[in-house]
Amino acid sequence: MLNLYYHLQLFFLICLFLLLALKLNAQCGTSANLIPNPSFETNTCCPTKNGMMTCMNSWVMYQETADYYSDCGTGTPPASGCCGSLPPYPYPDGGTIVGFVCTQGGGFQVRERIGVCLSSPLTSGNSYTFTFYASCRASRTLDYALFGSNNCSDLSPSIGPTAPLPAGYSKLGDGAIALTNATWTKVSLTFTAPSNISAIVFGGDTDPVTPTTESYFYIDSTSLVATSTCPSGGSGTTWTWTGCVDTDWFNPCNWDRLSIPTTASNVIIPFTSNQPLITAGTANCFDITIQSSLGAEITINSSGGGSLNVVKP
Question: What's the predicted TM-score (pTM) here?
Fold first, then answer.
């Protein structure tokens, strides 16, 4: 009888887990990451020198010679970068990153860029959010831009230092973010698609950049999602994790309240396919409940600058 009771309990828990997963999937709508190989982890070879973007699946080296870095599954980062020290390791997501130059000075300009064909096209008039983590070899300001084309064939590599992009591309958005080589910083860009977009190119802006000395940057963990499909709900002071977009605690679309928990928030972490990861910043809450009996967990990447501040005594 005891064995039967145990198995019935186990069966009930499995059914409850499946119902929760279905509910969360329904909440998430179509907020899928439209970028294939978003953290550059899938590859066909291990890079052994600068460049070697051809090792990486999906992405292409669009302008100039961006660099591909990987720990190749060893858990040990590469010894050095193209233009100086590498950023903090572990990286925000996995063991691979991309480095590129964005510089101007003395009449010389270099805008290294990378591109990818999206898993599903952007729809004209809809709102989207592009996010990525960035670091650099020294304290610099990254003047970045995201470009789009309605034709994936426009991703043919274009080697050359010129700043403008060829005809067929439109700028989806741009920005500037101050970085240091001691941390990873999350960057977000929200824009409205001016037309149906099938391919994107990311890198240095076409406008003049600052400073006028060589700048070398690293990126990881890219994401492009439809902002209008983020789930919403919740009430009072309770924030429930949905993990609809990715594992990033600091992504508002991963919470049912569409905002990041504060020191006044009672946080609930159920089991989802994307369990929360805290890196490159301090996460706050008043109280936190992790439904570990259902398989829920939370990961804090302290070596990457992540920490959790729980206010409740």
Answer: 0.68
